[in-house]
Q: What sequence folds into this?
């Protein structure tokens, strides 16, 4: 199975979910081994997720955490 | 609510930290009759806050979303009989609270520049202040520029790391719709953040 750039692009959600079939996975790997443009795209898309997992998750401020815990009756005595 | 609190406290006393936090995420609600609201709060409060803040662009409204979400969790935990994983069930409540808050405000979510007002940033410590760097501001602005349906899908899948199926349950859309939203969100962010991805 030969995979084109457009076909890989269509399958990127499954690629990142790890839900490609074995045949699709092998074809994607073959394509990425020879296509610099698609390798760049995949690498950058992986980078987006990595950036946000590292820097995009917010922490509930401590004062709000304590206030809400108290309002919920969860504040430890 | 009282029963839930009593159950939670009893569960905490008898099984403190017995279940790793991540192990709860895929646990069917039906098989968790004495789940601790306190542990759910510890596990998911930051995630619900993140989702609420990304949708509303306002720290105080996001805090309200967290509180209202867990009030509803307390009220419905004893009676809920769904089959889905608890993470999707809980985020679904949080998502609805955030969307309701958006409608109540009768405004569209804040524009990116407005989201960068210092008062709206959840800075709570020196460490957080350090993290409020140029990169963090760029990430905030980029995600705020996404249309809301794309933003929620991206936050739930790529930041909170729910599965695609769980995101679909949370947003009440098909998995295909989630995949389409994710593809568009990731591509837009890739273009917006190109300089950080080399």
A:
């Amino acid at each position: 199975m030969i995979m084109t750039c457009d076909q890989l692009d269509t399958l990127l959600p499954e690629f990142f979910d790890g839900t490609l079939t074995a045949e699709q996975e092998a074809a994607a790997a073959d394509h990425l081994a020879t296509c610099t443009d698609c390798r760049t795209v995949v690498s950058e898309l992986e980078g987006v997720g990595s950036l946000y997992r590292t820097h995009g998750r917010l922490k509930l401020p401590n004062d709000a955490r304590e206030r809400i815990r108290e309002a919920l009756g969860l504040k430890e005595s | 609510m009282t029963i839930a609190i009593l159950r939670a406290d009893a569960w905490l006393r008898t099984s403190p930290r017995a279940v790793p936090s991540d192990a709860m995420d895929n646990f069917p609600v039906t098989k968790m009759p004495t789940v601790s609201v306190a542990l759910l709060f510890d596990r998911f409060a930051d995630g619900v806050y993140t989702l609420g803040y990304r949708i509303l662009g306002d720290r105080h409204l996001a805090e309200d979303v967290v509180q209202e979400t867990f009030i509803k969790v307390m009220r419905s935990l004893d009676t809920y009989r769904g089959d889905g994983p608890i993470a999707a069930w809980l985020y679904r409540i949080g998502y609805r609270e955030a969307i309701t808050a958006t409608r109540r405000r009768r405004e569209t979510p804040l524009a990116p520049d407005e989201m960068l007002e210092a008062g709206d940033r959840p800075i709570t410590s020196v460490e957080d202040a350090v993290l409020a760097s140029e990169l963090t501001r760029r990430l905030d602005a980029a995600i705020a520029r996404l249309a809301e349906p794309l933003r929620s899908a991206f936050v739930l899948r790529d930041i909170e790391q729910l599965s695609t199926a769980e995101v679909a349950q949370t947003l009440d859309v098909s998995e295909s719709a989630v995949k389409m939203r994710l593809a568009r969100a990731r591509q837009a962010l890739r273009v917006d953040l190109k300089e950080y991805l080399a």
User: Anything to note?
Assistant: The mean pLDDT of chain A is 92. Chain A has five helices and no strands. Chain A has one domain: 5-71. Chain A touches chain B at residues 12-14, 16-17, 41, 43-45, 47-49, 51-53, 55-65, 68-69, 71-74 (CB under 8 Å).
